[in-house]
Amino acid sequence: MSKLILYGDQLSQPTRAILFILLNNKIPHEFKTISIAKGEQNTEEFAKINPWKKVPVIQDGDLTLIESHTILRYIAQKYKLDQLYSNTDLIERCKVDMYLDWHHIGLRKPASTVFYFTFVAPLFGIPVNQELLASESKNLQTSLSKFESIWLGDKKFIVGDKATLADFASFTEISNLRLISNDYFDLSKYPKIDKWIKQFETMDGYQESHNIFNIVLAKKQ
């Protein structure tokens, strides 16, 4: 049986979510780095794998999948990771899907926009759209407040007492914000999120899936 291949960049939040789950569940795989900073996603060679020139991508035998949440669901169902995405509890699975459907617009859009303009753009000398940054900064604060009060509430994780696909997807997105200025993301304002984040940092697979991220974070601190 051929080994599952994950193409991605460890500085990509969706890539880290998938890699974290693969490592946490000891699923045999090969990780092939596609450096976004070097523009490797734009090469003709990679375009043959994903014509949209985005990461992450997985190949499993003859199957190629794009879109991180599709990949997460595929891995969970193929390897019967019921704790992440139940195959038997319809209500629990729908709650996970409900969060994942909200995630891209509800959290990732403002989070990735603020991250891009406050971290990526200055590194590469890219002009900052101050109006868009201000707008998405407000949206991000609203999203984080809703994440803490509604999605987490008084629960240990989004759906209940165990981490699901919803948590892994949101963890890499929110923890990524620690790279930016406290003017845009001050974790001390979100004690429930802070406590929730710390749970992942002791899990199997965290260090290996976040080693490059943690090096960058250490330099920022």
Strand content: 5-15%
Q: What is the residue-averaged pLDDT?
A: 96
What is the element string, with H for helices and E for strands? EHEHEEHHHHHHH
Q: Give the class-level CATH name of the largest domain.
A: Mainly Alpha
Which descriptor suits the 3D outline? globular
CA-based gyration radius: 17 Å
Subcellular location: Cytoplasm
Keywords: Cytoplasm, Transferase
Organism: Cavenderia fasciculata
GO biological process, one term: glutathione metabolic process
How would you characterize this protein structure?
With 221 residues, this protein is α+β, with helices and mostly antiparallel strands. The protein folds into 2 domains: 75 residues, Glutaredoxin (3-Layer(aba) Sandwich), CATH 3.40.30; 131 residues, Up-down Bundle (Glutathione S-transferase Yfyf (Class Pi), Chain A, domain 2), CATH 1.20.1050.10. Helices cover 54% and strands 8% of the residues. It contains 9 helices and 4 strands. It has a 4-stranded mixed β-sheet, with helices on one face. α1 links the parallel β1 and β2. It is globular. The N and C termini lie far apart (44 Å). The mean pLDDT is 96.
